[in-house]
Specification:
Two copies of one chain form a homodimer.
Chain A (H helix, E strand, L loop, with lengths): L7 H11 L2 H5 L10 H19 L3 H7 L2 E3 L4 E3 L4 H10 L18 H14 L1 H20 L2 H13 L2 E6 L15 E4 L5 E11 L8 E8 L12 E6 L1 E3 L5 E4 L2 E6 L10 E14 L5 H37 L23 H33 L3 H36 L11 H11 L6 H13 L5 H17 L6 H27 L2 H39 L6 H17 L2 H10 L3 H4 L7
Parallel strand pairs in A: 3-6
Antiparallel strand pairs in A: 1-2, 4-5, 5-11, 6-7, 7-11, 8-9, 10-11
Family (chains A, B): Belongs to the acyl-CoA dehydrogenase family.
Protein name (chains A, B): 3-methylmercaptopropionyl-CoA dehydrogenase
Keywords (chains A, B): FAD, Flavoprotein, Oxidoreductase
């Protein structure tokens, strides 16, 4: 059976040494009191909850899956899911980073980010039930009427009710402009909504008393395409003005999908049959309102894959130390055993280090983004808020696509460490791989993320946002260029930064005469930028580790193995993972013709 | 529901235009009469069998899986599997390339290779039942006594009985030297075999009347390690001297594994309790005898992944033409539709072309190897046989590891084309990915394949075998270097060949002082050689296509779209897939220290 230990030490490193979050919080009035001890205490308790309550029902949830009663339209989650959710609510966990005005604890997003990483490591399928609520909460918080907020936000905050995002229809996923669900205005100011939605995660279940669906639909007079979409709040049970739950609304689960993974989460076909809803935000501006949810959801998907990378790594490491098979090529390492533990083999280390470097680098990136969100929302200086928002917008597609692609590689590598046992369900490794696969698809496929990055976030403003992030790299490079010990990290980072600048210019020029150049370059381009960003965090991590190790040496203390580990992992990252960029850049420069002149091949 | 159309046209291209097999057969007395029409007719019928009988039970077999009756130890395969197997036997398909001396049809291996590709495309799990028999057949054919051959080969040939390979035990997979199963000699010349085996594919099932297990075990006086292993024939039902089946032997299925994929194939824990067996080959030489099976099996595993790549490609292509979503970045392409078919998007084409290039390139490589096997076994000239054997030995780990890694990438890319639908079972795409995953693990993990290639097949003879293959590349380069139209293929191929020569020398030098350099380089090295080999076949394919297109132009005929497609796919391969080698070579040159100096990181 798999194991999971919350990576508290590395989270503390990222939060307190790399990002110095409590110093940053001093500038944010709402979080000025959030100190190191508070954060550590919350994460320690949160880690216990994840490892002790949610993790033990991960494999059983996958094996059992969800069941739909076709007569009652009721969905039952796997055994233990409901009870774990009740404990989650009783512990106050749903409200961690919610607004105190609606009953939240008002902790920073970056703390919630770490908590959710641990939940995702423990059980991605279970974590999607509360996770989806956050999106609904954010959309209502940003765009709801005072009445909607008063009625729904306290219940979403406490976790008594959960939320969903109802976007996709059978004929449209990426292209929401095609959606057909209709909303008919009623005399009382409500709407009657009719249509069919698919792929609705946590669309129906038995964990919470009510489910708050946020539904995209068209008003009768709406213009065609994406400019005619409005957002509606459609509760499973109607809610009276006093907050009491009334009769069942006309929104039902018509079927649940049988999927590759995340079996414990109900992926529902939802039928709306004159369901009563209320408008959220302005008519025909639903897509913009929904994007509040989608951006949060995209960061959340990156976090799912970060969690899976970490837990897959921990299990592969444990197995590699335990399993004995063959002798080291350089001579016997465990003479008392019939063979050496497989961790002596270089390629086993390659697979393990790949997962470790992506997990720890991904954690730094994800926390950095969450801290930017805290600044975007709470910093008193508008200019700081705006810059934070700009960087979050730039980094969101990278967190989503780069982290999830890396998790696919890393979880598969960790599965490979187990040999044949990695293919067998009881070891848990193959589930991590299957669960990780959806993260590259939902909330905008990774292709869509890459078009968002290259087309909108980079070429859309002539690289201005990218240059802002680049300034941080330049600063680091200047500060450390004379430091010989940092050369192995700084040089490749600076080199990649220069190459990316040139590459971006080339692609931008080509795209001016042929828009397909953007589509042809985008996926590889996102990975190049991803490596630049991750390289920055790995160089910063190495910088801190070198400093700490030097301090220990000066004071004749034993070096802390944690910092030695950071340094070794940084070295691995720069020599074994970042070099992927040379091939990616060659592929990008191959241009779009070789892709588009394929009509005979794809006939 | 997925579709499958046997790729007969491309098989004919590979067999008759690229490899000219019927010309080659003229030098092989046994196959001198095997002409183009015979081959095409067999493959056409074989394709029908695969697509019409085996393909329709692929998804249902995955959903249902196998069941074990714990009282009787009987395993029942999914519905339809037994009937399809009966049709397979009735049609004479098991005997296609078997020795006529034992009832076989004596057709070349390369024909059987193409037939099995189609079976694997249709249903990998089902195909493993007859597929495993081939390994047992080969081992008995090579090492069996006249009595063993007379008793068992006709039944394996006809398919009345199936075979297995019983190698792995709970504590040893890669490291067979650790195995513990015991064989006690009896007065009558038989042996009583006791022990436990795991991961035995098709170890127990209801498709055939008897199962012929080939079991590795130790004699009482055997030396420790891999030099003390012997091979035994252990039938499920004992067989009398007259060929009649007797009582049940002491070999039972004790459990079946729940796996990520290939659910339709029973992966069995086999308990041997004083099972009666006979020795195959010499005492303590079992591993060598087993390698006959394992090499065939490794080529077979590559073929499984080739089949999955092809079928995943076909379905993704069909979906990409049918599904409309978003408009082309360069303007509306399907004005009569609400959106353009997604095949207009460059990244969708990238995913499709990746699968196509790996499928067609992999087919050329696999058929080339199968033809070499035909020469190795049947060529009258010993020198030709020896050279064929040497090239097969070199290419076997490449076919196994490169093809299966590529299939993992390709099937996942094809799944991605489907967006959210790719994650749903009913579309079939996620099953291709799950099934493909095992191929990187069994019959020697891909890490083991890479060590076999770099350590034994390349450095083990100072690159002599690799140079033999390189001579063919040199010949092509010389022949075409003045041909401008071939430049885009010949130059990168020649360039990679030179770089590989230099790289091999570097790695060899470093390995002399540190054996871990082999383990650190091997996996990436195998991919570099894989690209050189595939690049050769793509350049050859382009050469033929250019010639055919030029001929058509000379004769003012319409160009055959098949050759245009080949050319486009070759261009894609050289500009988008082969460039991976530049990163791989950078990683290899990073050396082993960065992997092995990770004790703190992997503590």
């Amino acid at each position: 059976m798999p194991v999971y230990n919350p990576p508290l030490r590395d989270m503390q490193f990222v939060l307190h040494e790399l990002l110095n979050v409590s110093d940053e919080f001093k500038a944010l009035p709402k979080h000025a009191e959030t100190d190191v001890d508070t954060i550590n205490a919350v994460l320690e308790e949160g880690g216990k909850f994840a490892a002790e309550v949610v993790f033990p029902i991960n494999i059983s949830g996958d094996t059992q899956g969800c069941t739909l009663n076709r007569d009652t339209h009721a969905v039952t989650a796997p055994d233990g899911f409901k009870d774990a959710y009740a404990q989650f609510v009783a512990g106050g966990w749903p409200s961690l980073s919610c607004d105190p005005e609606f009953g939240g604890q008002g902790l920073p997003f970056v703390v919630n980010q770490c908590f959710y990483e641990m939940l995702n490591s423990s059980n991605q399928a279970w974590t999607m039930y509360p996770g989806l609520s956050h999106g609904a909460y954010e959309a209502l918080h940003a765009h709801g009427t005072p009445e909607q907020k008063a009625l729904y936000l306290p219940k979403l905050t406490s976790g008594e009710w959960t939320g969903t995002m109802c976007l996709t229809e059978p004929h449209c996923g990426t292209d929401l402009g095609l959606l057909r669900t209709k909303a008919e205005p009623q005399a009382d100011g409500t709407y009657r909504i009719t249509g069919q939605k698919i792929f609705i995660s946590a669309g129906e279940h038995d964990l919470a008393a009510n489910i708050v669906h946020l539904v995209l639909a068209r008003l009768p007079d709406a213009p065609p395409g994406s400019k005619g979409i409005s957002l509606f709040l459609v509760p499973k049970f109607k809610v009276a003005a006093d907050g009491s739950m009334g009769e069942r609304n006309g929104i039902y689960c018509g079927g649940i999908e049988h999927k590759m993974g995340i079996h414990g989460n109900a992926t529902c076909q939802m039928v709306l049959d004159e369901a009563v809803g209320t408008l959220v935000g302005q008519p025909n501006k639903g897509l913009a309102a929904m994007f509040v949810m989608m951006n949060a959801a995209r960061l959340g998907v990156g976090n799912q894959s970060l969690g899976l990378t970490e837990v897959a790594y921990q299990n592969a490491l444990a197995y590699a130390k335990d399993r004995v098979q063959m002798r080291s090529l350089t001579g016997v390492k465990a003479p008392g055993k019939p063979a050496d533990p497989i961790i002596v083999h270089p390629d086993v280390r390659r697979m393990l280090m790949t997962a470790k470097a992506y997990a720890e680098g991904g954690r730094a990136l994800a926390c950095y983004c969450a801290l930017l969100l805290d600044k975007e929302v709470n910093h008193p200086d508008e200019a700081v808020r705006a810059e934070a928002a700009e960087l979050v917008a730039l980094l969101t597609p990278i967190v989503k696509a780069f982290t999830t692609d890396n998790a696919w590689e890393a979880t598969s590598a960790c599965q490979q460490v187990f040999g044949g046992h990695g293919y067998i369900k009881e070891w848990g490794m193959e589930q991590f791989v299957r669960d990780a696969r959806i993260n590259m698809i939902y909330e905008g496929t990774n292709t869509i993320q890459s078009l968002d990055l290259l087309g909108r976030k980079v070429l859309g403003n002539q690289g201005a946002s990218l240059q802002k992030f680049g300034k941080q790299i330049e600063k680091l490079v200047k500060a450390e260029m004379a430091n010989e010990a940092m050369g192995e990290f700084i040089k490749p980072l600076a080199d990649l930064g220069q190459k990316l600048t040139q590459l971006t210019g080339e692609v931008g020029m080509k795209a001016m005469s042929n828009a397909d150049e953007v589509g042809a370059a985008a996926v590889d381009y996102l990975r190049v930028v991803g490596h630049l960003v991750l390289g920055y965090f790995w160089a910063r991590s190495a910088q801190i580790a070198l400093k700490k190790l030097a301090e220990a040496e000066e004071e004749a203390q034993r070096p802390d193995p944690f910092y030695q580990a950071k340094l070794q992992t940084a070295r691995f990252y720069f020599t074994r993972l970042m070099p992927e960029t040379s091939s990616l850049m060659r592929r990008i420069r191959a241009g779009s013709d070789v892709l588009m002149d394929t009509d005979a091949a794809l006939a």
